[in-house]
Design goal:
With about 150 residues, the chain is an alpha+beta fold. It has a single domain, classed as Hotdog Thioesterase (Thiol Ester Dehydrase, Chain A). About 25% of the residues lie in helices and about 40% in strands. It is built from three helices and six strands. Strands 1-2-4-5-6-3 form a six-stranded antiparallel beta sheet. The chain is globular and about 50 Å long. The chain starts with 8 loop residues before the first helix and ends with a strand. The relative contact order is 0.19.
Length: about 150
């Protein structure tokens, strides 16, 4: 799929929001901002998602990254399914934390590194409200027929 073939950005956002975020991401305040074939963007509040010392929890970056990467992989599977029922499931994830947020929002921008028929790889860059990189998450998803 090329950008010229891309569906309306509002349609992508409507598609992911209609699927829900899952109970964990909902509890953490996950909010979708954008979903196109080229990228997905969402955010989570720092408040309520901190370690005992007040820093955004490392696992919260992973929840943000996995939610973005898995749903974008499912969106890719949906767009390329040709009528088949397909599901993307995470098979590998890692995160490198380089800064810490103490307040505001953490925004994740998910971009595909590989979009294949059966595997996807996404990089999610998490930034604070000032645009500083906080964490980089990489996720691989397996796309399988149902």
């Amino acid at each position: 799929m090329t950008p010229a073939d891309s569906p309306d950005p509002a349609a992508g956002l409507a598609w992911v929001t209609s699927r829900g975020t899952g109970a964990l991401a909902e509890k953490m305040g996950f909010e979708w901002l954008e979903c196109t074939p080229e990228r997905a963007v969402a955010r989570m509040p720092v408040a309520g998602n901190t370690q005992p010392v007040g820093l955004f929890h490392g696992g919260a970056y992973v929840v943000l990254g996995e939610s973005l990467g898995s749903m974008h992989a499912n969106y890719h599977a949906f767009l390329t399914a040709n009528g088949a029922r397909r599901l993307a499931v995470g098979i590998d994830i890692n995160a490198t934390h380089t800064r810490s947020a103490r307040e505001g929002w953490v925004t994740g921008t998910c971009t595909p590194l590989h979009l294949g028929r059966s595997l996807t790889v996404h990089e999610i860059v998490c930034r604070d409200d000032e645009g500083r990189r906080l964490s980089t998450v990489r996720i691989t998803n397996l796309i399988k027929d149902l």
